[in-house]
Fold this protein.
Amino acid sequence: MSSIAKPKQFQLPRIFPRPKSHKGLWYWLATVDHKKIGTMYGLVAFFWFLVGGIEALLIRLQLGQAESSILSPEVYNQMFTMHGTTMVFLVVMPLSAAFFNWIVPLQIGARDVAFPRLNALSLWVFIFGTILMNISWFVGGAPNGGWFGYPPNSSLGFNPGNGITYWVMGLNILGVASIAAGLNFIVTIINMRAPGMHMMKMPVFTWMTLITSVLIVLALPILAVAGIQLTADRIYGTNFFNSEAGGDPIFWQHIFWLFGHPEVYILILPAMGIVSEVLPTFSRKPLFGYTAIVFAGIVIGFMGWFVWSHHMFTVGLGPAANTAFTITTMLIAIPTGVKIFNWISTLWGGSIKLNTSMLFSIGFIAMFTIGGLSGVTHAASPSDAQQQDTYYIVAHFHYVLFGGSIFAIFSGIYYWWPKFTGWLLDEKLGKINFVLMFIGFNLQFGPMHWLGLNGMPRRIYTYTEDMGWEDSNLAATLGGLIIAISVLVFLGNIILSKRKKQNSGGDPWDARTLEWSIASPPPHYNFVQIPKVKHIDDWWYRKYPELLEGNNQNIKKQKIEVEDSSNVDESKIHMPDLSYYPLIIGVGLTIAALGVMYTYALVTIGLIMVFWGSIGWSTEPVNEDSKEHH
Amino acid sequence: MSLLKDLFFYQGNKWWKIPETTELSKNPKNEHPFGGFMEKSKNILLILSSGKGHAGPIYYWIIAAILGIITMIEVWWFGIKELRYMLVPAMLIFSILKFALVVAFFMHLRFDHKMFSTIFITCMVVGILFFSVFLLLSAFHGLGT
Amino acid sequence: MSTNVTIHHGEEINNSTGVSHKKLLMWTFLGSDVMFFGTFIATFMAYRNKSLNGPYPEDTLNIPITSVSTFVLLMSSLGIVLALHYLKEAKMGLAKFWLLLVIIMGIIFIGFQIYEFSHFAHMGMTPQVNLFGSTFFTLTSLHGAHVSLGILWLIFLLINEHRGNLNSGNAIDLEIAGLYWHFVDIVWIVIFALLYLITANDGVPPGSIPWIGGH
Ligand code: HEM
Ligand SMILES: [Cu+2]
């Protein structure tokens, strides 16, 4: 930062030498490159997607027929708790984070995120957090209080053992990771835009990342507090949710949903961003109403804070509160609707190319609309009195989370895959993947609407034959199996396409935003020259400058090539060096969290590691050659 | 009106206040209390400070003295039986005052890049609104039943 | 493409708003911390006057003692702006003096807190005993954890300053630590008003002057 010569710069003596080579295990453990970190986020999250999927399949198998006994009630509780927690915190959030990492710096024309080592820290803390949470399966049972963990069901008296504590500690560790990543992306997006890229010229995905990051940074601390309070209750015998001492379990519901509703927007806004990139590209038309979409995102981000009690319509807050929250909840559907209309208008009159990525995006619009509509039906508190805790709610949130987030994430995977790897995924298999997933999804979650309206409650491990729920449940189970097949097709697609390695080039889709103006996969410094931005969709208008003059007849594509980085002098490149300290801090934090449950010796060891890591971190130069400091 | 414009329009036409990016812009010269938009208090503070355009430490001492005095008033107020019935509003006002002084002057928010104010004030506003609703809900649990 | 570009990753190269990354990070983090403390404070307020059994706040809180520690923390905020001021002016002696003083004041504050906690425990007020205890201890001890972290950070900076690694050129490092420190201070300002002054008055029978406190 300063050019003043630094005398006798102190460096913590190293136990291991700083890794240098850009190959091998050490490189992956110590990398600070946002693309590598994004890849690891993606791989780990996809692994948990498979695990969570297996959990879901087991649940579906159990519910496929009346009175089956594939899972015992105890295991069933653990299954649905871990399925929900896994899908929310271990899959959708980190998959979004994978996209943030990979795409945002490329879209804003930056060489990396603002704090590369902090980024690595987020990754490692996340990975160890996932492991911590899942250790519980092997040491006396996984958490079984639902992904919302309501006390007193989750209090020590009703729920002895360590399951819930693992859940809380895991969530808190994951929260640290998310907050660190959120802070990092806020700074990156605000501060590292390429010259000329005004806020209102940023790609929509970057915008949604920014809003999501703000939500993460503000919402996750609330979950952390709830977690600390519950842990304190369980471990130290405090009284937060202990009604014997006057504590109020309803407060947990408040605090959890204070976090929980912003959280659902954390899950969906990145998906909205992805779709807003894919639709214009394959309609070959600018996004309809850029400003409106961005603005709607901001409004959602703000209003999302004032609707949480719609999750508590039946706890007896009273008509006054229920009415107020009915109104705010219904209002929030407006900006959501604005976005949907904008996407449809983007398709309108475009020259649409129906490839896999586009299909998933269109599927997203349709499914998300259904989910949004069922959301509005239970936004009305009187009607929700019938629906709360039934399968109708399960249908709702799977339409927004699976039909919404997961579809958009698949769309994003198919869209950006060539940027990640330099080769294309197979379109035929991709379409099979989409069709199977679409059918399976609707078969699985469609019937849940009427199952719920017919009164089937959530979180029951079985039901009797005379309820008349069997056919629909069987259909749902079949749907689940079809989804599983579609995921296998996706994996097969990757393997087969990798064998073929059909070269994609830097810009296979004739796309719009900056990430397509460089080679695929990008060199580790991304841009040879930081671009100067003049327009929204700058890359598109560089290719088709005539469009700017209002001429859209007979336009010719300019011959411009993606940036060539093959003959850059690597010795002149000063990117941040590798660092293993983030990994050490991540391990330390996890050990400390484990220690809270078992012994203070572990806490001490963990904290010492964190201390060691932090001192090492802050005394090592970011880059050994240029001695640049962070 | 001009306040609204100032809030929502940057350079007359942009509603977002984060400025246009410029190449290789340096840190703004805002590290002293006289930068930025504080034209009016400038003269008063010039007298208080060393007068070089840099805030002298005396300026911080004065803020600290005010903070200390408010704290003493708080404690004094608490000790007077007759004033107790006003305790809650008084303490809230005093603590908000102290809060604002530290944030504005010690943390330089008053003189720093506007973006920092935007960030911090947004968080404070969301937080305060949010937790007020929460407290109202818990205070009036079951209202209307 | 030219081959003779030097590729850098760093603040001075790529910075669209002109403010330092670190400072932006710190402000955003403080915004996040607002929510953290906000939730605890909200819980405290929601549980105010709801304890079913004693010891109650008016039996335990000792306002004069806490006023002293509050004052110390407030003045440490002054100390750190002065430390920063002198660091920027490259008056290293004064800068180090004030930083050291801030650290000492922080330690005094923590000392008071430890004394207070053990005193409370002595009077039978523990986190387990009632709602007041639970909410009070979690909030104040997490605040104390923030202060302790701040002390460690400042010690680290002081060592750097002493070795000449922290100078007017990278005063930003002290500046962000200062922001953190001030924030911890303003949280305490709120805590002092809400958890001490207002709470100590809860349920006081008319006519008594409980602020002598502490039995
Ligand atoms: C159009 C906007 C939306 C409205 C009006 C809406 C409304 C609601 C309401 C009223 C509930 C509570 C139902 C109950 O428990 O009785 C609910 C539950 C839920 N919503 Fe939405 N929602 C909307 C969008 C979303 C989105 C975008 C997501 C996530 C991506 C989402 C995820 C969820 C989840 C996960 C639950 C269930 C939480 C649980 O009980 O486990 N919703 N929604
Ligand atoms: Cu909600």
